[in-house]
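User: Could you write out the 3D structure of this protein bound to manganese (II) ion? I've included everything you need below.
Assistant: Certainly. Input first, then the structure.
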Amino acid sequence: MSHPIIIAGPCSAETREQVWSAARQLAAFRLPPAAGSGGISFFRSGIWKPRTRPGNFEGIGETGLPWLSDVQKELGLPVCTEVASARHVELVLKAGLQAVWLGTRTTANPFLVEEIAKALKGAPLHVFVKNPINPDLGLWIGAVQRVLRYGPQKVYAIHRGFSDYHIGQLRNAPLWRIPIDFKVQLPDIPLLCDPSHLSGDTSFIPDLAQRALDLNFDGLMIEVHPSPAGALSDAVQQFTPAGFEKMMHSLSWRRSAPSEDLHSEEKIIIDAIRSRIDVLDEDLVDLLAQRMSLVDQIGRVKKRGGIGIIQIERWNEVSSRTRKQAADKDLDDSFIQEVYRAIHQQSIKRQEKIIRE
Ligand code: PEP
Ligand code: MN
């Protein structure tokens, strides 16, 4: 990875001293040589905090804006804060901050995104768009497009996980397929990961951050507080500056663009394996087409004989046979079940169509 984009800072701005303590320590931070030895790209701090339940600390508000603009001026470190309305944008522009982010609850609301995008029109800011709180790729892409439409901001996306009722240890569900699909659809938008809000707990952050780097994310947003235990929001997920440094230096930083910066020997091997994968993919699609054509033939016979589409015994037999074969080949059981569920659903759909014709 050549120039990872690193955003770090406290969840919330609480006092002028707390903001300055975090900012000074983070301004001195250096990435390891494998990540280019640079500093953080943006200092973050929320002044308007979207809290799930009323009565919690909802941010210091406008009072905190001069603290942030002073940090930006005096440390030469671009500062980023959350905006959730056109009014917030107006105040941030007046304070001269260089970057904003749209929080996960805002991205889920096209009315608000449109209002914010309009308010940002013409301002040369860096705009980070977090994924919507619900797992909806279209909504995320739509929010990015709304901001891009007004320009001329530099727009980025941040994966911070998706809300669910029962997730387990993490605060939010990562659903890595969604950010990967985002990258496939909008390859030119830099994609960062926010393992702080994803996990809700510093102990899970190193693994999640590593996973993001291994998947070629372009950077990370990490919450760092001078004394996390006393933080007014998200205490458990914030690192101390020293903890942040230790974590960042423990990660293995990878190159992000294999075609450009991999050693030629590695590139030749990858290219060779990829061409074999391409041939296999052709065969897979071909086999699926053959399977569906047989399914259609059965569909026509069922129609003629007045036989129902779903025969549970037959499906159980297919399912247990393929699962056994997959286990012998060391393939993951839930993976093969997912593949066969998709195949089965498609088969049913085709037969339904034939019967209705
Ligand atoms: C934040 O970054 O402070 C925040 C509130 O994040 P999210 O919108 O991802 O919950
Ligand atoms: Mn937070």
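The mean pLDDT is 94.
User: Perfect, thank you.
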